[in-house]
Amino acid sequence: MHNKIAEIFKQLNQVLLGKEPQTKLALVCLLADGHLLIEDLPGMGKTTLASALAQTLGLDYRRVQFTSDMLPADILGVSIFDAAKQLFNFHQGPVFCQVLLADEINRASPKTQSALLEAMEERQISIDSDSYPLPRPFFVIATQNPLDQAGTFPLPESQLDRFMMRIALGYPDQSSELAMLKGEVFSDKKLSLDALIDLDTLFAMQKAVRAVQAGDNVLHYLLRLINESRYSGTYANPLSPRCSKILLQAAKAMAFINQRDYVIPEDIQAVFIAVTDHRLAGISAGHGDNVLSRTLLDSVDPLD
Amino acid sequence: MKEFLTRQSLVLINLSYIAIAASLFNNINPLLLIFGLLCAAWRIVLFYGRVSILPKLLLNSAALLSTFLIIVLVYKQGLFSVMLHLILLGFSLKFLELKSERDVHYFVNTGFILVALFFIFNSSIVTSLLGGGLILLLLAVLLSIHAPHCLFAEQSKLLFKSAAVSLPLAVVLFIVIPRLPSLWKVPLQKQAATGLSDSVSPGEIAQLSRSSELAFRASFTGAPVEESERYWRVMILDAFDGRTWSQSAVKKEEEKTVLNGESSLYGLSGKLNSYDLILEPHYKTWIPALDFSQVSFSAVNLSDYSLRSRQPVFKRKDFTADLYQSVNSISLSAERRFQLTKLPEQGNEKTRLWLAAQLKRGLSKDKVLKLLLDGFSAQAFRYTLQPPVLGAEQIDDFLFSTQAGFCVHYAGAYVYAARSLGIPARMVTGYLGGEWQADLNFLTVRQYDAHAWAEIWQDGQWQRVDPTAYVAPERVELGLEGALSDSSEFLAGQYLSLQKWRHISFLNDLRLNLARLDYLWAVWVINYDNKKQLELLTSWFAQYAWLNMLYGILVMMLCAFLFVVLITFKPWQKKKREVEDRLYLQLQAYYAKLGVIRGKGQTVSDYAENIRLSINRPTPLFEKFAVNYNRLKYQAGLSAGQRTKLIKELQALSRQIRAGKN
């Protein structure tokens, strides 16, 4: 199983040069069964990362470009009256897939955003009186433009909370960009990758992630981090119990990817910023500096 | 303005204001109280946003105006009272500008000063507890400001814990810190003196109000003085104008010289006993004394054998007096003899005639006086606290018509008769008796034990005669209650007094226990002065001769300090480190010397990376240590064997690293 992981990494890193930490976090997020929010400027490779992930994991992948005039039905699907059968027929929307790339999610109106976000939480959608379960697995990789860009509706805290992680890609380093310009990597247009694993392997991996053990020592460390956010008085949006659960899940996936069957503080630290920064900062989140989660991380000693 | 106070803090602030103002209620002008409550109410209204904050100009002028008014109002009550009122005014005005945490600090600190002033007026054990409560309340205000996120239960826990921690320190400081003389004296307050007055007009008192208020307590070094001898002399009344017994000019002059510390010298001989007195504040200088007493320091003797303190007793104070058997007789000067036989020229003809008639019958002067006393016990005289009012001819009225009265009537009539016969005589006021508490060996004397008796000059010395003993011998033997035929007269009107209900045994026990506790408090806390301190410390350190007293005190203070440090840091609660943590800490210390210090949030792997970067070469041993450390600490389900093996490996690695093999 770990060979597979290494292969996946290799392939992803061939597509996105010099972005190992981000691809690792993205993979961790999917293995931990969470949704991923990628926030960065246009043209940084957000979409590339999303589609590369989907193709490499062999998942059915759709992309929806969000715009401000989009309606919930454009994502979820719509019931159409079939004159011949005298019945309403449900036509599935793009959300019925395994990986949904919600591009520029914060350009859509809040109504449309919340339609998607409900699907993310429940993993099923309800139209009229019928419920339609979504396929398994169901990942949403949403990309978001920084809030200071024109034409954006910020996601409220409650909806940010649905995403396990928020990551930023950042500029590539010089050598990677040079290689890109020389055409040594795949270009966006013809991105077509081999699927390296099948669905069963993915499920097996997710199961293995859940089986990773977390001893008392590391759980206490995690709780100290959470409690610091609650009781130190420094943080306006303290971390919720849901967040501590998600943090542990992500840390387990990180431990799994690092080929360990137990969690250590290094795993928690590796996912901590991606998992908590958008929760601690809330709407006011800028991009890139992650100052709140870093401060929190620095103020708790793993040794105690 | 954004409200910075929480509802809880506001409630606490108001509560502490009301409590402190109430504690000083007797000493402050009610107008100031009303003003303060208005200020508090304004702050509450501000809290709800119904008024806006006062402009600075208005605030300052209000402060100036109210200061001026207060000074005008209480100017006559003396400097001390003005100061008290001004502090309380500032305390009240603080409500108008309670705008930030700093203002609350001012408020609380002023509150502490007011609590200190409260202790000037009150020193009993109950009031000390009340004062402690006030301090706790003020601390609670601080806590609610600085720990608003704590639950109420947590806050109270913290409050009581910190108070409990500071108690032992306070006790040690109380015991060892020398008592410094006061930097400034509390000026004598214009307060109604309780207890005895320096003149008495028996004819005008229709009802003697008796109070169960404590006058003083006494304990004896030797055996307690017999009940019939417990005549506590306070004052001599040697002038009579037909209506009022008072002090003659000579006596008044002598009282004044007391403040200069001039003592009358007369030889005392035959030391019998000595006793300790704990006086309740009465704002005068007198000290009740048995015959014949002397206090070595801080008090002087008057020529009439009474004692006076050099300074007015404005707080509970103790004196130690020696009791002597006899006093060397001195001759009476002609002037004194004239004063002591002086009577109004006119009036009381019946009495004079009666006396003259007795003399004519050939009786000696002594016999005549004896006849008078026997008359008190034989005839229809009765002892009552509610005597009928006497007319202009007081003595005549009393002796021949009403024949009812209390000690002053009897003593007055007797002295009048003696003087008529040419025998120097004077009235003595003071206290008689007291309640003996056998288990702690002390005597409680209350205001209702006040008494008056007579002294006549015979055989070159003063002889005590108590005419009341003839009409009501029980007064001497059993105390006031026993002397009254109608027991409802005893403490009439004082329903709340525990003395009144002494026949209910449970209440009586309670009363006695309270009295006992208050006595111990007075002896050991209020009157713990330099002398007692020296005695106590010497008695402790006498057992350890090698311990110099100064070092002893230092050690004690150090102990208290250590106690506080320990209670604060609680080293015994420190988690016992696991082996791997100890090794890790050793290595951290080792690398810290090389200049690589672990950041607070750094994990062991990060630290390894740090070390590698800063010493600029690979550190395989420490990296191996990091991996093993993580396994040992975080891998669940390690078997005991694996643990031991890992620990051994870690120990070996740590040794190698510290030997510089990395």
List the helices and strands and how they pair.
The complex is a heterodimer of chains A (304) and B (662).
Chain A: H1 2-15, H2 20-31, E1 35-39, H3 46-56, E2 61-65, H4 72-76, E3 77-82, E4 87-92, E5 99-103, H5 110-122, E6 124-127, E7 130-133, E8 139-144, H6 157-160, E9 163-167, H7 174-181, H8 199-211, H9 216-231, H10 241-257, H11 265-281, H12 291-298
Parallel strand pairs in A: 1-8, 1-9, 2-5, 5-8
Antiparallel strand pairs in A: 3-4, 6-7
Helix pairs in contact in A: 1-3, 2-10, 8-10, 9-10, 10-11, 11-12
Chain B: H1 7-23, H2 30-47, H3 56-74, H4 79-93, H5 101-121, H6 125-146, H7 152-176, E1 199-200, E2 214-220, E3 231-237, E4 239-240, E5 245-246, H8 249-257, E6 268-279, E7 286-287, E8 293-295, E9 299-301, E10 307-309, E11 317-327, H9 334-340, H10 349-360, H11 365-378, E12 382-383, H12 394-402, E13 404-405, H13 407-420, E14 425-432, E15 435-437, E16 442-446, E17 450-458, E18 461-465, H14 467-471, H15 473-477, H16 480-483, H17 505-526, H18 530-541, H19 549-569, H20 579-593, H21 604-615, H22 620-634, H23 640-658
Parallel strand pairs in B: 12-13
Antiparallel strand pairs in B: 1-5, 2-6, 2-16, 3-14, 4-5, 6-11, 7-10, 8-11, 9-10, 14-17, 15-16, 17-18
Helix pairs in contact in B: 1-2, 1-5, 1-6, 2-4, 3-4, 4-5, 5-6, 6-7, 7-19, 11-13, 20-23, 21-22, 22-23
Would you mind describing this structure in some detail?
- The complex is a heterodimer of chains A (304) and B (662).
- With 304 residues, chain A is α/β, with parallel strands linked by helices.
- Chain A folds into two domains: 2-211, 3-Layer(aba) Sandwich (Rossmann fold), CATH 3.40.50.300; 212-304, Helicase, Ruva Protein, domain 3.
- Chain A is built from twelve helices and nine strands.
- Chain A has helices at 2-15, 20-31, 46-56, 72-76, 110-122, 157-160, 174-181, 199-211, 216-231, 241-257, 265-281, 291-298; strands spanning 35-39, 61-65, 77-82, 87-92, 99-103, 124-127, 130-133, 139-144, 163-167.
- In chain A, strands 2-5-8-1-9 form a five-stranded parallel beta sheet.
- Chain A is globular, with a radius of gyration of 20 Å.
- Chain B has 662 residues and is an alpha+beta fold.
- Chain B folds into four domains: 7-149, no CATH class; 199-501, no CATH class; 530-567; 579-658, no CATH class.
- In chain B, the strands form five sheets. Chain B has a six-stranded antiparallel beta sheet, covered by helices on one side. A four-stranded antiparallel beta sheet of chain B has the order 3-14-17-18.
- In chain B, helix 5 (101-121) runs antiparallel to helix 6 and helix 6 (125-146) packs across helix 7.
- The longest helix of chain B is centred in the first third of the chain and has 25 residues, at 152-176.
- Chain B is elongated.
- The two termini of chain B are 62 Å apart.
- The interface between A and B is medium-sized, with 22 and 20 residues.
